[in-house]
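Reader question, answered in our methods column.
A reader sent in the components of a multi-part assembly and asked whether the whole thing could be modeled at once rather than chain by chain. We filled in our standard form and ran it. Here is what they sent:
COMPLEX SIZE: four components
ENTRIES:
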Amino acid sequence: MTQRTVIAAALAAALGLAAGAAQAQGQGPIKIGSFLAVTGGASFLGDPEAKTLRLYVERINKSGGVLGRQLQLIVHDSAGDAKQAATFAKRLIEDDKVDILIGGSTTGETMAIVKMVDEAELPFLSLGGASVIVEPVKERKWVFKTPHSDRLAVQKVYVDMKARGLTAVAIIAGSGGFDQSCRKNAQELAPTMGMRVVADETYAPTDTDVTPQLTKIKNAAGVQAVLGCGFGGITSITAKNYKQLAMTQPFYFNHGVGSKQFITGAAGGAEGIRLPAAALLVAADLPDSDPQKKPALEYAAAYKAAFNEDISTFGGHALDALLIAVDAFKRAGSTDKKKVRDAIESTKGLIGVDGIFTFSAADHNGLDEASFKMVVVQNGEFRLLK
Amino acid sequence: MSLLEVRGLTRDFGGLRALDDLGYAVARGPIHAVIGPNGAGKTTLFNLIAGIYVPTAGRILIDGQDVTALPTWRRARLGLARSFQNLQLFENMSGLDNVRTGLHRHEPASLLGAMLAWPAIRRAERAGRKRAEELLAFVGLEAWAEVMAEAMPYGVLKRLEIARALASEPRLLMLDEPAAGLNATEKGEIDGLIRKVAAAGTTVVLVEHDMKLVMNLAERILVLDHGRRLAEGTPAEVRADPAVARAYLGTGHAA
Amino acid sequence: MASRHRGLVLLAAVVLALPWFLANKFHFQVAILIGLNALVCVGLNLLIGYAGQISLGHAAFFGLGAYVPALLVDKLRWDSSLALAAGLAAVGLLAFAVARPILRLKGHYLAMATLGLGIIVAIVINRELDLTGGPDGMSVRAYRIGDLRLRGEWTWYWITGGTLVLGVWLAQNLIDSPAGRALRALHGSEVAAESLGIDVAGFKVKAFVISALYAGLAGAMTAHFLQFVTPIEAGFLRSIEFVTMVVLGGMASTLGVVVGAAILTLLPQLLTGFHDYEHLVLGAILMGMMIFLPKGLVPSLAALWTRWRAQS
Amino acid sequence: MAEFLQFLFAGLTSGAIYALVALGFTLIYSSSHVINFAQGEFVMLGGLATVGLLAAGVPLLPAALLAIVLTAAAGIALEKLAIEPARNAAVVTLIIITIGASILLRGAAQLIWGKDYHRLPAFTGETPLEIGGATLLPQSLWVIGVTILIVLGLRWFFGRTLLGKAVLATSHNRLAAQLVGIDIGFVLLLSYGLSAALGALAGILIAPITLTSYTVGTMLGLKGFCAAIVGGLGSGAGAVVGGLVVGLAEAMATGYVSSAYKDAVAFVIILVVLVFMPSGLFGRRGTDRV
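And here is the structure of the entire assembly that came back:
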């Protein structure tokens, strides 16, 4: 009968039977549940997101909390795995009975739970990039997202290319979800924006070298500009290889490279590369009149002080989600899920670090496009492209 | 027709010719033995007959049927069974299950049927269990039925291997050094066991170094040396053959 | 009662009793995922535990089992059951096609070949963006039987529990049969098995296909239950997870692998509180268990229990 | 021609990297018949430890040496604490133990050095060399050169030194080696230590090219395993040939076919090689002796 004992013990321990789970609603802290890709391939997203949430929940609590209640943050590491994300989301909803969900660092993690939050009728702020997360809005009553749509990133790049008279673009993209979404957008947007994709190469995020792919692009006929889609160490390698091959076409990346590591890792190869990024990345370059400058600089300073790391734009997505949630709780005057959802949907002019948010029944992303800037790497720093 | 016949059997390992153009026939009935000094090609011959090795040249016939191209398991299904020089028991199974595995060629082996617990298979299981228990008793191992093979002493394993081979009700049983590593008492038991098997109608071919045992048991003996036939005949004939004596004395293997 | 049914009855009792102890939908979801992983492991155990053939690529079959029916329903509007049958047929065919050349290999070479096969399938699912949605995964429609849509934890708990019990029953029957002994025999000694008339290559192929079908069915059920699937389900790490479940719980012990599946499915839930230390602890637990209980949890504990009983 | 040369350089560089990792696999497999799935983590440890020590103000050379020593210690600890106690366990159990070790090492690295990726400075500058219209980074020459030196060194070690012969003897027949007085325990510790040191050295050499982070070990380990298997386990020359075959095939497939399935190339090669040569290109073909 050893088997039964083992099973019973394991289940009892795991499912927390002993714990008196149900807590009186409304009396204790406001619970914010989060599942993020803190480790694994997408940890470049999840790690700063988790750090930011912890940092700011603590700060908010120190200054008295929200509605006179403390915030309680529960973060689970999904490691970027959609199945794991779905299970943690279920746990947050059913077991922890959270008042709002923030998370899903990636599109996959998010899409795995959109049906779940709809059934649970729980407000959910996603940090994923793809626009399908909030579209069609009719089917996404409870889902909102804070990052700029990754489609917008490509649009920005194309607009900049066209302004320089470059219309024939080569794509070099990683095989991850974030990268492939960018690649797909680049292909789909090209005809409507008067661009032509003349080369399309792929690499794995674990590759050690991309010179073969770049050599093919270099030798392809008529390439006027190159767009890289990716994130992490491999983007630095790409930039380095680009320089090694002495390629001369203007090189663009999507917003995945918006962190200082990209520049230092590329050993000079990042110089001159352009990318779209939230204003956060170049806050110092913003005019003082820009309403985002102050909060962005403050966030950068606070993050650096707490973790001794430079901010990335991804942590900003989490901060904005938290700010939107807190704002909604305040305006709803309670944690009633329906009221909080409505409050989020009626958010107006909220100044976040990603931009200014104005949600509506027709727009669950709510970001103004103006806050998505084109940035260039100059002397080893991200600078606002003027 | 001979139960087993090999014609022109040759096998090279790299540059070494282990068996050279050997002709050999085994008639139904008595106990046969293959002897010879170390490296004479005895085990190679067994492995060629069993189908573990592919011959470089030559043919192998069982009951007149050419089996040279057949894989080992098909030859086994024609009624060829064997024991191994360096024991090949199923260590992950009990004594009884080892013997039951020997019944394989007479049992319905359908996976689907087994999974769905078809009555025919359950019936075969009950009958097989009984048969295996009988065989264990036959070799005197009733007490070892539920012991895992990995926990059995050497002498027991030797007999278990024979019981397992017998379970397939072979026409021809090949025993590779059945007495090797056994003490005098155990050798006596094996001797008796082989006689019992032969008496029950199974043709036995054995490779053995123990000349006393061979001369006692075998009715016909093939002597190999350097992969060639040196002599063949009754124990008395072989004993009298000067070439045999030379070969054995030359390598220090006095009979 | 035949001894092979004792474990089955125990399992069925656990499945029947468990809902009394499950407080909410999350608990049910974890229980369902345990059951589905256990289903994979019961099949994989036939291959690894009994037939002694390692596979580091079974997530490929799990993933195909999830994707093929999902795609047939989504793109071609097939009936769910028809799509499931087609999915299983595809899994079985692939397993059958690759089994013979691959299973000639032994030990680490076999491990590498199965690993390679798994990775290739995962890469294909990952790369065929237009078809599968790529790395971000795809939504899966609820399983329909006529007008009935199979949805919700309660429904899937009983479907999973029933399938698992059935799967264990089939596996136990197989193990305790001539064919099952043939599988164990080729694990013990291939040459002896051949010499007894066992078609070693054939049985390896059959064990491979059957274990692939278990994985494929579990994959399809997982996708239908979660209504979402990503290429991670077909990936290398998932394959390793399945093998670890089998080895951890106890090779050649059907109840053992169910326990192994339970432990490994629960661990992320248990360890999530360790935050940054989670992987450190997970690695230490895996190593510790395998070092101190090398035959797996259930067989090792069972042996201890017998010894303890014998002493007292 | 320039194009071909460029693919060739890329393939040689990657191939040499895979070969270095594969040599580590080979070393451990030779002595203990264990496939160490934590081999890639030694590569990661070597690179990250050097980065960490550099950041702490240690100059490059002592930092690298210290990192190699630390990683070798990790290898020895793995053998002593995890492999040795489980030496009689089944192959698959040992695989799970080394996988557990790799999860543990990755978890530890992530705690110590964080999740960012880092770069080591190139040993002799970043200015690419131009050869026949193609370019090659000086660091690639370092990788290729050191790989050649290591292969020669290992050949000397196994062929000319008593210790090396003891390792070989242990690999062929552990019992016999023990009988002639070889200290098996020491030989095993040595080969794990050496293999870890080799991994660390690889990690340091390639960090200027590939960058390094706590996750680099996984795929490098897999590719190294691939290379070791293609070459035939237990053969040093096989490991190098295997590494080059995989690296060159990836580069040429990317260059002349398509990059979409680049990361599948190594595994397709594995399947093709194993179907036709079940023991790899240089592996010993065993016949069952019964």
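What stands out: The first strand of chain C starts at residue 138 and ends at 139. Chain C has one domain: 3-270.
Send us your own complexes using the same form.
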